[in-house]
Amino acid sequence: MFVPPAGKAKLVNGRAIAPIDAPPEVKRLIAFANRIVSKPYRYGGGHRPFSNGLDSGYDCSGAVSYALFGGGFLDSPLDSGSLMSWGEPGRGRWVTVYAHGGHTFLVVAGLRFDTGYRDREARIASRQLRLPRTGPRWSRSMRPLRGYVARHPAGF
């Protein structure tokens, strides 16, 4: 079994592997995000109650909300505007939510979880794994941060 380096998640076949030293909440967040990596993008997707199970597709804030729910950081879905004031200001050690009024994404243990801004590696992995062209995906690369606010769960 592969063990990623301390503090950094590893990306294997489109799924994130949590670092061995990650807190349990971060490991659960990553596991929940991995559950929806094969789902397509769907506007409004992921905004029903979490108790209803997985949705058929996820938009940016639905995907971020579902992952945060998995880590125990959120009880119900939020839109990207609401995520701008969620949690604590600034970047977190393990988890950072980046949001502006029209989009949101996560950076977790060094990997970006996003429904947009595909890099070459993510596009190739999506084709090889026969995933829908759009939807929540992990990436090693960052995207431009102009206009985004950074928020994080307290202590993470």
Can I get a quick summary?
This protein has 156 residues and is an alpha+beta fold.
The biggest beta sheet is recorded as: 6 strands, antiparallel
Q: Bin the strand percentage.
A: 15-25%
Architecture per CATH nomenclature, i.e. the level-2 architecture: Alpha-Beta Complex
In total, how many domains does the architecture comprise?
1
Protein name: NlpC/P60 family protein
InterPro entries: Papain-like_cys_pep_sf
Which descriptors would you attach to this protein?
six-stranded antiparallel beta sheet; 156 residues; alpha+beta; 8 strands; globular; two-stranded antiparallel sheet; 4 helices; endopeptidase fold (from Nostoc punctiforme); 23% helix
Q: How does this model look, in words?
A:
The protein contains four helices and eight strands; from the N terminus they run ββαααββββαββ. The protein has 156 residues and is of the alpha+beta class. The chain is globular and about 40 Å long. The strands form two sheets. Strands 3-8-4-5-6-7 form a six-stranded antiparallel sheet. The protein has a two-stranded antiparallel ribbon with strand order 1-2. The model has no long low-confidence stretch (mean pLDDT 91). This is NlpC/P60 family protein. It comes from Thermoleophilum album.
